[in-house]
From TrEMBL:
It comes from Linnemannia elongata AG-77. This is 2,5-diamino-6-ribosylamino-4(3H)-pyrimidinone 5'-phosphate reductase. Pathway: Cofactor biosynthesis; riboflavin biosynthesis. PANTHER family: 2,5-DIAMINO-6-RIBOSYLAMINO-4(3H)-PYRIMIDINONE 5'-PHOSPHATE REDUCTASE (PTHR38011:SF7), DIHYDROFOLATE REDUCTASE FAMILY PROTEIN (AFU_ORTHOLOGUE AFUA_8G06820) (PTHR38011). Its EC number is 1.1.1.302. Belongs to the HTP reductase family. SUPFAM superfamilies: Dihydrofolate reductase-like. GO terms for molecular function: 5-amino-6-(5-phosphoribosylamino)uracil reductase activity; NADP binding.
């Protein structure tokens, strides 16, 4: 069976529904029937099938930036690149452009051995951390390896302020950002009301109670399907 992905190519991800200046936000992740995005102790699971994975990579191609939390980097060591076959690209698409990786990392735990810092990685990550790390040796080491480290204030819950993040991304010409996870980041974005598009893959499997829930906060859970446009 062949799948037509034109609906994803035709869609613009640059128009935000928000009044204020800020990038268009697409939230997308894969979960099991019981709402889990990873296994026991965060074990990475391949929940997407081939077609859904292709859709994910088309979304990566269509966005200026891709965002994950440091928990995902430490657990999965992701590449966050676009990997598509020529059959999946419409004719005349031109060369593949990889999105800018953005990492939310309040305590600057980003490992200097991460795949995102390898010379073979097409785009160096932008890491957002808190003022306490503004002149640390770790920051200098990451910058020497090619990362850009931005310092932003924390919000009341001790996380990077999403408002501050958004204006910094806008100032740096990021007009669209795809948020992939993990669990804490998904909850933060759902709570923030900043999500413009939501693409959820549901795999026909149960992971069980030891798995990592996509959304832990009961209040967020209740509001997901009322507020997000699917
Ligand atoms: N199935 C899927 O589609 C995906 C699954 N995952 C899974 O998610 C798990 C990781 O999830 P978590 O441990 O929750 O880590 P996470 O990736 O959500 O990162 C959380 C960390 O980000 C930092 N952070 C800074 N500002 C933040 C903000 N405003 N909001 C939230 N976090 C902020 C904090 O240091 C926090 O500890 C892994 O097991 C991974 O495999 C991750 C992405 C996609
Ligand atoms: N779309 C999707 N489906 C799944 O089943 C997944 N486990 C994920 N995980 C996300 O993809 C990242 C890995 O990216 P690379 O293949 O290394 O480029 C992983 O860290 C999660 O963000 N996504």
């Amino acid at each position: 069976m062949t799948t037509n992905y034109d609906f994803l190519f035709e869609r613009s991800f640059e128009q935000s529904n928000k009044d204020t200046k800020g990038p268009h936000v697409t939230l997308t992740y894969a979960q099991s029937l019981d709402g889990k995005i990873a296994g026991r102790h965060g074990q990475q699971l391949i929940l997407s099938g081939a077609q859904s994975m292709t859709a994910t990579h088309i979304l990566r191609l269509k966005h200026d930036a891709i965002l994950v939390g440091i928990g995902t980097v430490l657990n999965d060591d992701p590449r966050l690149t676009v990997r598509l076959t020529s059959e999946d690209l419409p004719k005349g698409s031109g060369p593949i452009r990889h999105p800018q990786p953005i990492i939310l990392d309040s305590k600057l735990r980003f490992p200097t051995t991460a795949k995102l810092l390898l010379p073979t990685s097409p785009t160096r990550p932008w890491i957002f951390t808190s003022p306490i790390h503004s002149s640390s040796q770790k920051k200098a080491n990451l910058e020497r390896l090619g990362a850009r480290v931005f310092v932003l204030d924390l919000d009341l819950s001790g996380h990077i302020s999403l408002e501050g993040l958004f204006s910094t991304l806008w100032e740096n010409n990021i007009r669209s950002v795809m948020v992939e996870g993990g669990a804490s980041v998904i909850s933060s974005f759902l709570k923030s009301g900043l999500v413009d598009s939501f693409l959820l893959t549901i795999a026909p499997v149960y992971v069980g109670k030891d798995g990592v829930s996509a959304v832990k906060d009961a209040e967020v859970k209740k509001n997901i399907f009322q507020e997000a446009s699917i």
